[in-house]
Structure formats: structure tokens, C-alpha cells
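Troubleshooting log. The previous structure file for this entry was overwritten by mistake, so regenerating from the original sequence record. Sequence copied from the archived sheet and checked twice against the printout by T.R.
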Amino acid sequence: MPQAEDARLRGRTYAIPFDRVWTQALALAAGKLRGWSVVSADDVEGEIRAETRGLLGGASDVVIRIGLDRDAQTRVDVTSASRNGRVDFGANARRIVRLLRALDRALAPTRR
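Regenerated output below.
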């Protein structure tokens, strides 16, 4: 959500090659995050579509868009929508924050 009021929900820009960011985001969406599964992934379009299932069985659709910005930095934006269409009590925001934090950790430089 590039224009989100809550800074935690805004996408990320990384000075890391696209391939590395793509691989980590895909791994997270493919099951490294509990309850997540990939529905489709297109690295040419830079889009990962995932599904999440909550403890009570409710499903949500997540779209992760990864591409290069005008400065050739890798940009990641995420949206999440509950399928039930009703109030989500902040679940979509928590889902986005969880993914972005996990991606930040996965891409952090390792210390030796």
C-alpha cells in the first residue's frame, strides 16, 4: 500500500537485486509464513498472488508486487483483502506488516 497512512503498511524499497527480493518474498508466501500458500507467481510481471487462511478458516487474498523503481531499486508493495468482505478487525493490516517484517529480516545482511 504505497500511500497508506500507517507507515508500517507502506511498501519497501531495497538496494538489493530483484532476483533476491523475489526469491525471498516467494519463499515467505509459499509457506514460510504459517497459513500462507502461493496461488500464482509471475516474475516477468513481478506479481505474487497468495492466499492466507486464519485459525477460524477465513481466507484472504494477498498480492505482492515487486519491481524496479525509477532509481533501479527493488520496490515491494503489498495488498491484502478478506474474502468475506466484512470488517476484518485489522487482520489485513497485521498480515501486511508480518510479511514486510519477515521480508526485512530475510533480506538483512548477515553478520559474521
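The chain has two helices and five strands. Archived copy saved in two places this time.
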